Amino acid sequence: MFIPFFAGIPPFATAPALILVGVMMMSAARLIDWDDPASAIAAFLTIVIMPLSFSIAEGLAMGLMAYPVIKAIQGRISQTTLGMWILAIVFLLRYIFLAGKG
Question: What residues contact residue 59 under an 8 Å CB cut-off, 6+ apart?
Answer without folding.
Answer: 45, 46, 47, 48, 49, 50, 53
